[in-house]
Amino acid sequence: MLITGAGGEIGHGLIARLAGGNNRRIVTLDVSPLDASIAPQVDREITGSILDKAILERVLAEFEIDLVFHLAALLSTRSEFTPVTAHHVNVEGTLNLLEFAQHEAESHGRPVVFMYPSSIAAYGMPDLDTKARAGRVKEDEWTHPTTMYGCNKLYCEQLGTYYARHYKQLAAEPAKGRVDFRCVRFPGLISALTVPSGGTSDYAPEMIHAAAKGEPYACFVRPDTRIPFMAMPDGVDALMALAAAPRDALTRTAYNVAAFNPSAEEIRDVVVTAFPGARVTWDNDLKRQGIVDSWPADVDDSAARRDWGFAPRYDFRRAFTEYLIPTIRKRYAAA
Ligand code: SER
Fold it and tell me: What is the model's pTM?
């Protein structure tokens, strides 16, 4: 398998999980060298950009890849600062990987499963009243993203669907030689192992990790801000489960997945209880607030539950008591 953006948040979680029982060879592609916590788990680490076609041609010549986790992307806040670069990486990079997957599929005569993490950023709620009224949003509702990142994600969902359909129609043997594109629309992900960089749901993980380190944290959104979140192990499980699902069971390309959706104040309360002495203040960044306000307060994931058995292990309480707090404590104690 090939994992792009392997050194990022999801990559860390995915590689850590694969290390616990995986008989496939792992090839990674990331712009930075992998850190020591995951590098030993990888069979072949390539440092380079998804925009470098020569690298992808080399991987094509050297490996038989039948599963791609295309995780490389610039996240939402970062993309607003450099929208043109974001478009290059998020859209042209994905196009390069889809072409790569198509060529792998053709040369080996079997489908390549292409896993793509999309995002709640693919949605765009016009205002807070509508957001409150909309409640749990279905995949085909409110898909009017306001950010460059959200536009990129929504478009690449379509692009993946195009590759899947286009080659299904053209290939003489429809089951062979094509890209089997599958996509999860993730909520904000919270990992005990890493903090994200450049996202807008980052206030939750940043608050938790700062408290664990005994550092003060100024939260950049209002206390009443509410979007869906998920603990990283459930996010990784979702990717693995969707990748393994029988093709015939899938009724759509992009699936919502949900776990819990606390307000920023509810997160603060749990953090302060878990780490007494944690200092959390509120320092609203209007631009980032506008981004999270445009994301739904919750999503309807009934299609994922029905089609491929999605069922998160961690609700809000368990995510903190059984995963985040013990794992983060151990991590910083060891450091
Ligand atoms: N967590 C991402 C971000 O904040 C959204 O997918 O950009």
Answer: 0.95
All structural domains of the chain, each given as residue ranges with its CATH number in brackets, are 2-189+231-258+296-314 (3.40.50.720)
Query: Tens of pLDDT along 240-258?
Result: 999 999 999 999 999 999 9
Are 201 and 270 a contacting pair, CB within 8 Å? Answer: no
Ligand 1 atom 2, closest CA? 199
CA angle 22, 2, 323 (to 5 degrees): 55
Quick one: which of 164, 166, 159, 162 has its CA closest to 179? 164
Please list the alpha-helical segments (H only) found in 220-263: 232-244
CA 120 to ligand 1 centroid distance, Å: 8
pLDDT tens figures, 198-233:
999 999 999 999 999 999 999 999 999 999 999 999
Q: What residues line ligand 1, using a CB cutoff of 6 Å? A: 75-76, 119, 121, 149, 186, 188, 199-201
Distances (CA, A) of 276 to 38, 212, 215, 269: 32, 10, 12, 10
